[in-house]
């Protein structure tokens, strides 16, 4: 499908002329955006949305990725990274507490990118550097326990 129309040139407000810092009040140059026509042509090609399409081969879906390399290997399973099964995502079940990347991030790191309203504002989170350099990062499981308690899990 295609949407197509002419609209007023936003650079010259439809005049076809442009007066900038190099022209005084009584002079203008031909607008280089619309070539003096005063209009710009808009054309957008798209596929009409008929519903979410399947993506084959996906086993697990994550709400976000804060910069962690996600993938199965001899040390980690896909579940270790949090997330939900593809079938749960297809069924719009949402991301429950516990689906965060808890072994790799702390609550502040995770929720800064996922939902800032849920990011904890604890005194111990005033790190001033990177999340992974926080004094509490090695004990992030305790931070998650505290976050769960405060968020009724």
From TrEMBL:
<dbReference type="InterPro" id="IPR036410">
    <property type="entry name" value="HSP_DnaJ_Cys-rich_dom_sf"/>
</dbReference>
<protein>
    <submittedName>
        <fullName>Uncharacterized protein</fullName>
    </submittedName>
</protein>
